[in-house]
Amino acid sequence: MNASTRYIRPTGLGSIMNKVFNSLPRLGISVMGARLLAVRGRKSGEWRTTIVNLLTDVDGSRYLVAPRGHTQWVRNLRVAGTGELRLGRRVEKFTVAEVADADKVPLLRLYLRRWGWEVGKFFEGVTKDATDDELAAIAPGFPVFRLV
């Protein structure tokens, strides 16, 4: 699997845990900043939802990072260019700009500092303490979107 097709599909217990954690933002419960991402399907046009960690950097810019790689929500967001972040009854509409691989290093490091305990297994041994070169090497496999 190359970086442009890297996709780790939830299986077994991970699939069950996804269902449990996806229900929390619907109830208005945010664990560590999690939101329910809603994006129109690129083929069906129907709303698709999944839980995401909303990353805010030191400048206040907000990002979505795909730790599982080029997932369905990533593909849908690329086509739609817009989506919604939901938490309970609150709905925030947004548009996105995809972040270039060369600009991902500090964002991936910040993401791993905040949620490495949760998503570290998807980073295949790369941690928040990795060198810039190590993070740059894996960047193509981890799509990042800036909310605008």
How would you portray this structure in words?
With 148 residues, the protein is α+β, with helices and mostly antiparallel strands. The chain has one domain (3-147): Pnp Oxidase, Chain A. The chain is 31% helix and 27% strand. The protein has a 6-stranded antiparallel beta barrel. The longest helix is centred in the N-terminal third of the chain and has 15 residues, at 12-26. The N and C termini lie far apart (31 Å). The relative contact order is 0.19.
Average pLDDT metric: 92
Determine Rg (CA atoms, Å).
15 Å
How is the biggest beta sheet arranged?
6 strands, antiparallel, barrel
Low-confidence stretches: none
Q: How many DSSP helices?
A: 4
Taken together, the total number of domains comes to 1
The top level CATH class name = Mainly Beta
For the record, give the distance between the C-alpha atoms at the N and C termini, rounded to a whole number: 31 Å
Please list the strands of the largest sheet in the order they lie side by side.
Answer: 1-2-3-6-5-4
CATH T-level fold name:
Pnp Oxidase, Chain A
SSE order: HEEEHEEHHE
Q: Specify the overall morphology.
A: globular
Instruction: Supply the helix-strand structural class.
Output: alpha+beta
Number of strands: 6
What are the main properties of this structure?
148 residues, alpha+beta, Pnp Oxidase, Chain A, six-stranded antiparallel beta barrel, globular
